[in-house]
Amino acid sequence: MPGEFSPARARNGAGFFVSLLAGLLIGCASFPDTTDEAQWKRYHYTEPEMGTVFELTYYAPDDATAERAGRAAFDRVEALNAIFSDYEPESELRRLCQQPAGTHVKLSTELFNVLQHSQRVAVESGGAFDVTVGPCIQLWRQARRQRALPAPARLAEARALMGFEKLELNATARTAVLKTPGMRLDLGGIAKGYAADAALAVLRQHGIRRALVAASGDLAVGDPPPGKTGWTIGMMSFTSDKPDRTAVLRNCGVSTSGDTQQFLVIDGVRYSHIIDPRTGQALTQRISVTIIAPDATTSDVLATAVCVLGAEKGIQVLRKFNGVHTRAVSMREGKPVETVSESFPKNSK
To answer: Which domains are assigned to the chain?
Structure first.
């Protein structure tokens, strides 16, 4: 159950396996060499949060420190869910959307930061990522449950409520304005990455820097394991159920986005759970995108944007962002084709 945290669920030892929830396999973990951290033990905790499973793997000097830090990290994620959730009726996000159109609403620092980051990506991507996509997200969720495509008229109504230009932010006052009645925001393409970064920051506040936080397809990667140059990250696409690329990384965010698990098939056409905000339509072109960025907030949002833009156009847009590396696998004439940015790490052996 959410919020459960028990020392019995911590496992000490070397190496670990994280389930392939969204296309990522991770190995090894640890801390910085200020004391004799080579003697610190490895801990691994899991807990259901934000509709998925969050996993913490790190090194700590003793059980008490490990449990205290882990509990604090999970509490932070739970608190963020109360802000960002589109499902919880009392979340700050839902309360914002319930205000009359044109109302200037004071926001928490967390919600403002996420919306501000989202709006920058919306502008740079020409709307390929857009948190105002909520009305269409609702229709496509219903479509997957009912196994029937949304009615064109309802999609048209939903699209009329969308458009990132209808969300206005004021950084000085830290306020947001929804300009059109009936708007609904959805943070599904950025919230988990932000929460992973926040959990990693909490661990660092407890003196734990050699750590990794996994939130489904989003990773916040800290300092490397003792004696290692980085964490070995395995990356998957829709072409295999095993990692087909690996990279050794540290102090960054890694996200993989695609339709491996959530999709709808109607009359032989596969409709992804990823929606193009510019059209309101679910993607039908298969694509899997992995982004490496300075943090998981950035990798999360950009992975979704590139899925919508497509590999070539997506890589062009990502040149506007510093420290971002991209790998996309898409189908062309029935065959998977890999497109990799020049800066993407070479496959490690």
So the answer is: 7-85+191-251 (3.10.520.10)
